[in-house]
Amino acid sequence: MTALAILIVAGPLAGPVAAALRARARAAGLASAAGALVSLAAAIALLAAQAHRAPLTGWAGFLYVDPLSGFFLLTVAGVTLLAAVGSVAYLSAEEDAGTLSSFQVRLYFAFFGLFASLMLASLETGNLGLLFVLVEASTLASAALVGLEGKARSLEAAWKYVIISSLGVTIALAGTLFLYYSATTLHLTSNQRLAWPYLLAHAAALAPQPLRLAFLLAVVGYGTKVGLAPMHTWLPDAHAEAPSPASAMLSAALLNTGMYAIIRFLAITQARLGTTFPHRVLLTFGFASMVIGVLFMVRRGNFKRLFAYSSVEHMGIIAVALGFGGVLGLYGALLQTLNHAIAKAVLFLDSGNVALRYRTREAAGVRGLLTTVPVTGGALLLGSLAVLGSPPFGLFLSELTIVRAGFARTSPVFPLLLLALLAVAFIAFARSTAGMATGHAATPPDPYRGSGARWAGALPLAAGLVVLLVLGLWIPAGLNTAILHSVAVIR
Amino acid sequence: MVEKLAATSAAGILLDLSGVLILLLAFACLGSKLFNRYVAYYGAQSVVLSFAAGVVAWTFHSTELWILAVLTLAVKGIGIPLATRRLLLHRLPLARDTAISTGLSTSLIAGGALTAFAYLVTRPQLLPHGVVAAAVVPLSTAVILLGALSMVVRRHTVAQLIGWLIVENGVFLGAITLVATFPFIVEAGIFLDIAAGVLIMLVFVSGITRELAQASAGELRELRG
Known about the structure:
The complex is a heterodimer. Chain A has one domain. Chain A is 78% helix and 1% strand. Chain A is built from 20 helices and two strands. Chain A has a two-stranded antiparallel sheet with strand order 1-2. By secondary structure, chain B is an all-alpha fold. Chain B has one domain (10-213). Chain B has seven helices and no strands. In chain B, helix 1 (10-30) runs antiparallel to helix 2 (35-60), helix 3 (63-89) runs parallel beside helix 7 and helix 4 (104-121) runs antiparallel to helix 5 (136-153). Chain B starts with 9 loop residues before the first helix and ends with a helix. Chain A binds chain B through residues 62, 127, 129-130, 132-134, 136-137, 140, 143-144, 147, 150-152, 155-156, 158-159, 162-163, 166-167, 170, 173-174, 177-178, 180-181, 184-185, 187, 190-191, 194, 207, 209-210, and chain B through 1-2, 126-131, 144, 148, 151, 157, 160-161, 164, 167-168, 171, 174-175, 178-179, 181-183, 185-186, 189-190, 192-193, 196-197, 200-201, 204-205, 207-208, 211-212, 215.
């Protein structure tokens, strides 16, 4: 079991190794994809092996994998695989076109693997201090990806990202400090006082006032990484300027890692202070993020920024679902996390195809994708429908679950507001992407040399859409059990 | 379990004194306009911080805390200021910070208000048990807020970097006075993060400054003749 946990973290490091051996984009990309595949297989194996057993623990609580970590490991490893396959296509096209030097390509794969590995490691630790260390380290690795192109705009976006996120995570460290302090009266060793399972088991003895402060600071701090408004300001810039597969990683993996940290704090806070206070905090930040995300989606412009604001909106939905609480709310939140991750990975990878062909990131500069490049255009249209929560895709199911949870547990004002915001989001988002997909235009030059790269560009889109479709029609029994076990961990 | 450190003991007085000095140095940084000074005040603050960590280490006979005190001195007191000076201030001649959005007196008054607020929310009475030195907790909260304030009012990247480092110093001061120390592996990881963070930020800062310099030089060429 421990070997599986190590394999999950070590898998993505194949990319950095290939980069160190001076591989070109195609080889380094294939190595990354193979590593990510190993990682995903190990995550599935671990989840299956864990289903009816006690959590995996080791190394004085620094290693701790329970069903909740298992579920997030599955999500992040899956996204890493999609993004790694997408990287093969995107980076070899950029290398062939001479937009990125071979040094930049090697830098990309080195930091891509490091980023994925650090995120997966942060999901495997039960020590909240080490969680901070790994989350901050993953920020640094991903900042290098955002600034990779080295132009003034991307450097500025990378700077904004690294400084705002670092400040945010430092605030989360202050939260961790107050949590640690709230346990001073307990007879635990210093390692145990930061170990999540011990803190949860002894939650009744924690000092309430410092715990309240700790939860607030953690939501603000890790919320900066999640992109909860008003701490989201780095998010659109970083997502727009990063190479598209890296944007997919940011939106579909990094944001979820931040949310995972918040969920860990939520569980302890709920156990001590009851649900009223943490739910109020999460509902406030959740609706603020939804409103901000939807408002900025109305403006037409850069399509990667549009997708980024949609991520802000979806993180808001997940926070609202956590704020509704109950089995239904938590189930909806986790299912939404998985669905959104896959849908957003598809959209950002597809945006890479569009950006490579048209050499623009402005929605107004792109027309007629359905006729000129049917695969890209079709994926854009289907991906948009999926991310907006139309049936038969998975997000419809998870958003329905969340709305039901809202009606069951809070006043009907909240779920109605949620539905209204979803409707506005649908109109705003679809207006841009439908405009890009329809109409007539001349066929742009093909950026890919050889059918291998073209396949690598299309494969993750198809795979992601199929998974989304399946999740909309039928939740596999194993996944259902995993989510239910995770919900039991939080409650 | 951490014992309390009496406020009247020699160690308690030294710790209080260091806390006040650290706060004053954060104010000094907020009230300055020269990049050189930002770095100098930050370096001095880190030296005082390492002294405070030494005091707690000496009181509790904690080897781990001694190591942290030495690390603080080496990384934050000497390493980071030296690297910032060598790699940024000297190479890209930077002298006077002109990208400040409020006047210095306004930011100092706001800093005073934030310090008062810090005392309001983290009064020693609110933190009942096990605190090493309760009087220092509001000081460290104030340092965190002052660092954040200087990041807000300054738009230059170097100034923001120093602001973040001051916030981090505030959290570290809070850690040594609130709970003595985190587990050692965690503390060592935090140090590693900060060192890596400063390195990557230095790369971005010099990249941004170079790009901006090229852009403005381009404009100059176009306007000629």
